[in-house]
Amino acid sequence: MKKQLAILLVLTTFIGKSQNFEYQGLFEGIGDNREYFNNYGFPQTILATRTAFEAGVKSNNHKIRGGFSYLFEFGSDIDAQKPKLTLYYQFSDQQTEFLFGAFPRRDKIDFPLAMLTDTFLYYRPNIEGMFGELQWEWGRQNGFIDWISRQTDYNSEIFTAGTSGEIFVKNFFLQNYILMTHDAVPIIRTPNTHIEDYLGFALQAGIRTTQNTEFEGYVKAGILGSSFRQRSVTDGYLSALSLFAEAKGKYKNFGIKSVLSSGASHKFAYGDLFYRAKNYLRTDAIWYFINHEKVKGTFNFSFHIIDWEELNNQQQLSIIYVFGK
């Protein structure tokens, strides 16, 4: 027994020395005022702060971290939003990254708002499932699965899975996005409740400016596709295709970004509802008012044009402060 305790003590000391303790904290300020007067979005103001913390150990290319993420909406009770658990394993090297568990969504996946709206990041900041990415000299490709809800007597089984990536040659690039969502019914079925399946993709080719220039930007265009079915209701999948184009430019602390979808109405499970219009143009005037290494602050003034008839506007404020070791 004494020999076993001695071996355990030596192993514990060795593991402690071979692993590095790490931590990361985040503060996020959210301001989102939506002046909408249409049949797709509804007017609302979201004011909130988010705090998140995680800590863990790292050994070579392996990490284990745990923590929490909490959103406090102004004007609500402190327990209106439950804290979200962060707990995951991560492997990474120069070409590969893999995560399993509940881990931050930010900086991992970046899909068009047509497919995943920005409020999804407000209220569901973590992916709960798996993520993997491969990188090489001329591109990258990642994939994920996000388990949203387990089927019970009263809850649906819901999960979202997708992949996105890019290949590039000098300043030219080709980007791809594929996303699917499955929404099953609860075990105890109620009338007018049906299994729903969503599938969509975007494929865009473009050109971006060279690095380390005062003016940064890109132009890209392609197609946006979506398919939706409600089992026992729709006659198979209802599919749609539209022109999908985007342009963005930034000079010093100011930028402008425009996104166009024209030709069809799209239906995604968690997509921006504006894309259910056949023609939709969004233009953002952006002010990068804080540009520190650890603190980023942006202000967007957005204009939404729906079917070339209705004009709506939106103002978004974001402050993100990240610190850690």
Any overview of this molecule?
By secondary structure, this protein is mainly beta. It has a single domain, classed as Porin. The protein has helices at 2-18, 119-123; strands spanning 20-35, 44-59, 62-73, 84-92, 96-104, 126-136, 139-149, 158-169, 172-183, 196-208, 215-230, 238-251, 254-262, 279-291, 295-306, 310-324. It has a 16-stranded antiparallel beta barrel with strand order 1-2-3-4-5-6-7-8-9-10-11-12-13-14-15-16. β11 (215-230) and β12 (238-251) form a beta hairpin. Residues 7-15 have low confidence and may be disordered.
- Indicate how many domains the architecture comprises: 1
Q: Write down the CATH topology.
A: Porin
What's the CATH architecture name? Beta Barrel
Which spans of ≥5 residues are poorly predicted at pLDDT below 50?
7-15
Structural class given helices, strands, pairing?
A: mainly beta
The CATH C-level class name = Mainly Beta
What Rg is obtained from the alpha carbons, in whole angstroms? Answer: 22 Å
Major sheet characteristics: 16 strands, antiparallel, barrel
